[in-house]
Amino acid sequence: MQITALRTQLKKLLKINEYDPKKAYLLIPGMVSRSERKNLAKQASKLTGRGHVLEFGAFFGASTAAILCGLKQNGLTKEFHVFDYFKTNDQWFSDITRQLAKSHESLLSFDGEWLDFSGVYHYFINDPVVHTHKILISDLEWKNEPIEFIHLDLPKDWSQAGKIASETFPWIIKDAKLIFQDFVNQWSFEIGAMIGFLLKERLISVDGSFGSTLSTSANEKFGMDSLQSLITEMSDKTKVLTNFDYAFEHTRNFLNQEEQTILRVGRAVLISESDKVQGLKELSRAIDHMPSTNGRGSKALKNALEFGLQAKKSVSD
Ligand SMILES: C[S@@+](CC[C@H](N)C(=O)[O-])C[C@H]1O[C@@H](n2cnc3c(N)ncnc32)[C@H](O)[C@@H]1O
User: Fold this and answer.
1) Is there a single domain that holds both residue 246 and residue 268?
2) I need a surface site. Which of 22, 130, 161, 255 has the fewest CB within 10 A?
3) Which of 26, 69, 85 to mutate to test the pocket of ligand 1 (most atoms within 8 A of CB)?
4) Which ligand 1 atom sits nearest the alpha carbon of residue 59?
5) Tell me: the pLDDT tens digits for 127-154?
6) Pairwise pLDDT comparison (153 vs 5), residue with the higher score
7) Cβ–Cβ < 8 Å for 37, 25
8) 291 secondary structure, DSSP code
9) Would you say residue 10 lies in a domain?
10) pLDDT digits over 170-211, tens only?
11) C-beta 154 within 6 A of ligand 1
12) Domain range spanning residue 262?
């Protein structure tokens, strides 16, 4: 087949106007892995339509398309709301965005130091069932209706997760699917602490782990009281560590050695925030557990070593 014909075919595949049985969502450039996308589609296909579907952090729409694929499979009866600012003024994020946009670079737009990538998202996601909200998460307001699915791929820390939790958690219904990205990342330990709280309170159960994602289900309707306790515990550094440890202990069976190392490094980062020397000790313990690998663990080791060097430097300063 000629290159041009191949390109046309690929372009057709990438247009997600309708449910595509060939799983075109796997081809959209994005930050979620193949297994994470497949899990999103699978979990979305199990919904009953008793509540709305929410996604925080869509980027070019890879995860959005995966969720959409699952929803179309089971017949969507509620609304699908997607929240993202779709622009960045961060150099690191802009560089990654331009790399991933590659052949779609003409869909990017620039305004001073801001890079707007909503054109790429709308190229891939143009289904009328998706309600897209181009907002900063600090401006989030939920319309106070039941929620049956949340994909959380925007917050990396409590300042963002807390806003989302405050607006949405009281509306989560029993058996809702709650999918937390960045659980297995050394920099997002506050997401781990939040998950630890939810596990400890028996509000959620773990369904599985895929890449850096933890996939869970709600055991019961979340109430206002649970939200208040979560907010209180997240403002207490000791409780944050205890809850993080609870999450680690209760998800260990779902995590391989490399993933456990990444969480240990996250724990060291968390401890170093209040005690740099203790943080360094935790870090060397984490590295002791490091399996010899070329996979994600080796990336965590590299990051851990960088963190260790920085921590050492700041201790000696
Ligand atoms: C990791 S990316 C999402 C990746 C996406 N799920 C995918 O499938 O590739 C995180 C997204 O969160 C958005 N974001 C980060 N901070 C934000 C904020 N404060 N308000 C709104 N959006 C934000 C970014 O624009 C980015 O698209």
Assistant:
1) no
2) 22
3) 85
4) 27
5) 999 999 999 999 999 999 999 999 999 9
6) 153
7) yes
8) P
9) no
10) 999 999 999 999 999 888 899 999 999 999 999 999 999 998
11) yes
12) 257-316
Model confidence at 18, pLDDT cuts 50, 70, 90, reads very low
Asked if 28 contacts 38 with a C-beta cutoff of 8 angstroms, the reply is no
Same domain, 181 and 263: no
Q: Please report whether residue 76 resides in a domain.
A: yes
Q: Is the CB of 137 under 6 A from ligand 1?
A: yes
Q: Do 269 and 237 belong together in one domain?
A: no
154 C-alpha to ligand 1 centroid (Å): 4
Phi-psi region of 81 (alpha: psi -120 to 50; beta: other; left: phi over 0): beta
310, part of any domain: yes
The number of distinct structural domains making up the chain is: 2
